[in-house]
Structure formats: C-alpha cells, structure tokens
Amino acid sequence: MYIGYKTSYNESIKMSTTGSRFKKIRTALNLSQEVFGKNIGLSKSGISAVENDKTFVSLDILTTLFIDYNINLNYLVCGAGTMFNPSKPLQQDDFTEKVKEILRAEGLIR
Fold first, then answer.
1. What residue ranges define each of the domains in the chain, with the CATH number in brackets?
2. What Cα–Cα distance (Å) separates residue 108 from each residue in 36, 49, 97, 102?
C-alpha cells in the first residue's frame, strides 16, 4: 500500500513514505537488511517492517542513524532535504531535543 493521489489524467502517483526513504538510506549505504539491522539494533524482520511502513523506529535508533551514519532526520521523517547531513552532527543532548521537536511537529509524539 502506498500514499498517493490522482492526477488530472487519473494516474496514481506514488508518494515517498518513511519506509521507502529508510530503504533508500540502507541501499545508499550498500548494506543488507541483516547487516544494517545488526548495526542499529534491529532484526532483519524489523528492518523489513520499517521499510514496508508496518512500524517506525524508536528514538534510540533515530539517534544511532544520526550519530553513526549522519542521516538527515528531516529527510527520513518528512522527506525534506538531502539524505545525509552536510555538516558535523550535533552533540547528543542537542540532537535528542532536535529529534523530539521534529517528531512532535509530525504528530508522532506529544
């Protein structure tokens, strides 16, 4: 299932989802589901569930993606910007607050 809309020509256009962006990140890193999962603390089936939009990753995993892989969380969560951050990551405390701010803005947490 995908999120999409109908054009004036009655065509369905696939919109990017968090899961599809998560998969693009993994494949850009040239990692299998098994290896990527091991590196971030998920099973192969957990990676598959995220990629298929069955679940979302935890704040701890978002932190790992940001710190270890320099992933742009705006890209992952919202589809905005580039896949990877162009600059050095923030300190841990700053990062956690930034992630919470993004997740609140998207209505994923309170």
1. 18-105 (1.10.260.40)
2. 24, 17, 14, 9
